[in-house]
């Protein structure tokens, strides 16, 4: 699987090696990225950075800016990763 996060864009949700922002916050704040399965994401941080999509009444949070367009290409596939 390729790493969608390897763009030259600034990624506020993955600063400091993907630890400070992604792992900050309480357990209720945490989820995983549906595109990069298993990658922890802080809902609060992702939402503040615009790294989310709504699909069929559910909100999906992403680890980086590259995951949103990937999710858009086949939202049902990626939403199934969260089931």
UniProtKB/TrEMBL annotation:
Gene3D superfamilies, sorted: Ribonucleotide Reductase, subunit A
Biased composition, class Polar residues, residue ranges: 1-13
Domain named YHS: residues: 40-80
One Pfam family here: YHS
Region (Disordered) residue spans: 1-27
Signal peptide positions on this chain: none
Molecular function via GO: oxidoreductase activity
UniProt keywords, alphabetically: Plasmid
Name this protein carries in UniProt: YHS domain-containing protein
